[in-house]
Amino acid sequence: MRDSWNPETYHRFKSERSQPFHDLCAMLEPHPGMRAADLGCGPGDMTVRLHQQLAARETIGLDSSPNMLAQALPRAGQGLSFLQGRIEEFPLEGRFDLIFSNAALQWLEHHEALFEQFAARLAPGGQLAVQVPYNEESEFHRAARDVATEFREPLKGYVRHLVALSPEGYAHLLYRLGFTEQQVLLRIYPHVMESLDAVVEWYRGSLLTAYEARLDAPAYERFVARYREILHERYSDSRPFFFPFPRILLWGKMPGEDKR
Ligand SMILES: C[S@@+](CC[C@H](N)C(=O)[O-])C[C@H]1O[C@@H](n2cnc3c(N)ncnc32)[C@H](O)[C@@H]1O
After folding, report:
1. Distance CA 4, CA 67 (A)
2. pTM value?
3. Which CATH class is domain 7-253?
4. pLDDT tens-digit readout, 53-64
5. Ligand 1 center from residue 105 Cα (angstroms)
6. Is the preceding omega at residue 7 within 30 degrees of 0, hence cis?
């Protein structure tokens, strides 16, 4: 599979995409000398902010995309480093005071097993903070699945499904894994986009990368054109275009000494 992550396309909606990161940071309980991991760190700009905001002793950004890491690596230094690897393999040594992940875990399956793995790698009093989109049922995702069905052959039957649990599901999971404090929020981000086509551009930077990785360039362009066509059939292209985007933000803290 190709590395279809493109930092430029991803950053086109930087301010909209960074608000949930700030909201997730606001849920943290920082304390001096923290060791943090940022899973699916992308181009690393948010990892820098996290590291500085926590005044952390050490922060490691982990990402599987060489394209994204090429942007992140020059940002390393002063306790901040980046590593290429897969979140599900958790190739990081030792225990963490914070395991953080903004807009990345929706690409991974089996969240129960994944969170269990994270919980096992937290130090006493350690915190887990995760933000994932919760829009599997949105018309934009449905349209992408419809196009994927039309492209069944070149995609070899692949259809991208979001794997987030429900907010209640995460609350149960955190409780079961021994987090004695938790907050799980469902928040709708009210984006006002220039047009319907701007939403297509938004998804080119995220959801559609899963199809881009599996199609050759001309087939992918046909995929995007068909996606745009279906959306124009189903929506009126009002300008500006209102684009409400649901996300789950969750935070949990393990029992242990209070280091604040
Ligand atoms: C939408 S970006 C989010 C980047 C960053 N966290 C931010 O908030 O801007 C998702 C990132 O997750 C990474 N990713 C997806 N699946 C991954 C996996 N299995 N292991 C490691 N990184 C992964 C992608 O390469 C991409 O950089």
Report:
1. 8
2. 0.91
3. alpha beta
4. 999 999 999 999
5. 7
6. no
